[in-house]
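Why does this matter for the project? Reviewers at the last site visit asked to see concrete outputs rather than summary tables. In response, this paragraph embeds two records directly. Each consists of the residue sequence and, immediately after it, the corresponding structure tokens. Nothing has been edited or filtered.
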Amino acid sequence: MRCRFGRLAPAKMIGHKPVMGRAVFAMLVFSAGVTITTPAAAQTTESPFEDNLLRLSEILGSLHFLRNLCGEKGGRWRGEMGTLLAIENPDPERKARLVARFNRGYRAFAGNYTVCTAAAVEATGRYIKEGEQLSRETAVRYGN
């Protein structure tokens, strides 16, 4: 069973208001604060929390596949990724890296799961916890 949201559309094509998850909400709030207070010239270089954003993108892709596989209807996690991209407002190369990691997370499970299993439910829980922890650690370390 393949989800029709298999690939991430550009942020401007996401036409719904996303529902915030705790992990994503914390990361987006943090990210917005950093983006607002970072000089424009500094935004062209890789941020010190770039690896965290890339991992969060991958987690969102995995959650997008797994949650839809296990009965959640809609594009909540894809919408969260669109919100992350909108807040970060990355240059085209950086956006491509973030989107590639989202798609990598999605494909990692799409290649192995066709039905919702106990293992898929467990993986979903682990990814939600990892996203929450990553968001907290990033906010503590790099927050203003």
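We now turn to the second protein, recorded in exactly the same manner.
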Amino acid sequence: MGTNYSRGYSLEYKVKQAFEERGLLVLRSPASRSELDVVALSPRGGRFFVQCKKTSKDALYVYGLQPLVDLASRYNATPLLCYSLRRTPVYCRELVAGEFKAKRDERHVEFRDYLARSI
């Protein structure tokens, strides 16, 4: 069992690596306390502003995401929340509002599947 920082870093690294495998330029904000954990830029003009959240529980509740949504809108980027519940792959959701709730038994989109369809 790692620290919260190491679990968060691990998730951010997986997200960064998946974007890079698809040829995007990726910038990670270490120990981020800002709206952005990861920024990914596509050579074809696509932009992704990403917040990453990892929990060791079966449910995730995230509030205060509106600044990320607003920032992405200002820069014509896609706001993404990449997340992982206890012992699950990395999932993602495009954000349209400032809060997010997920439970293990709900339907989720795996991050790699999202990238395959979106990039």
